[in-house]
Amino acid sequence: MGNISNENFKFLKALAQNNDRDWFTKNKSEYQIHHERMISFADELLIKMNRHDNIETLNGKKSLHRIYRDVRFSKDKSPYKSHWGGGFKRATKLLRGGYYYHIQPNRKSFIGGGFWAPNKEDLLRIRHDISNNASDLREIIANSHFISTFGQLKGEQLKSSPKGFDKDHPDIDLLRYKQFIIGKQFTDKEVFADDFIEKANDTFIKMRPLFDYMSDVLSTDSNGTPLF
Predict the structure, then answer these.
(1) How far apart, in whole angstroms, are the C-alpha atoms of residue 211 and residue 222?
(2) What pairs with residue 68 in β-bridges?
């Protein structure tokens, strides 16, 4: 029930080519079929994730983002997304990091996660930890399993050094990050395969060293004393 089909992608491709309200209204019943199947996919994935993590998101439907685009501040006024996307939030203040799945035709599907928009207090705490000792983070992103799965750490970066940090700091490459994002892309064939949910879950599992490191940084002070 949780498998993603070629028919699902055919619908998304048709939506991308006919991204208007009239077409969507005429094809609303087909959308609802594929939407329900994506909920089933998310439900099955959530069950697997709760075996190795504590997820706050209650069910697959809650994780799935709306198909409707927010066009208020966009030059692109297309009313609908041509992909499925959703996220899982970890439970409690002690577990940080967010999981994301993105399902889209033409080899644009990926399983991602990390810290998309850390608030300024959290970002400053991360930077102070990196400034004092970046070896833990460097060990994580240099690990062979990390590299083979995610390639490298991604995310928006400052062009110069952040305020309060020396531009000649030996770890300035890490201090410039404003986001800490990782992800793995999948081909359409891989998405259609029976074991895609297993591969998606395994990708989330491999994010845990980064999540665990960040969770420790963001839930303790500089002496290692719990903040919560």
Answers:
(1) 18
(2) 80
Q: Tokens 């940090």 belong to which residue?
A: 165
Q: Residue 206 and residue 150: Cα distance in Å, rounded?
A: 9
Buried b (16+ CB within 10 A) or exposed e, 3-35: bbeeebbebbeebbeebeeeebeeeeebbeebb
Using one digit for the tens of pLDDT, what is the confidence trace for 70-102? 999 899 999 999 999 999 999 999 999 999 999
> Inter-axis angle of helices 28-49 and 196-205, to 10 degrees?
50
pTM over 0.85? The answer is yes
Tokens found for residue 134: 């970046």
Q: Which residue type is seen at 172? A: I
d(CA 54, CA 52): 7
Cβ atoms within 10 A of the Cβ of 67, count?
19
Beta-strand runs (E) in the chain: 84-89, 98-103, 109-115, 180-186
Q: Which 8-state DSSP code applies to residue 180?
A: E
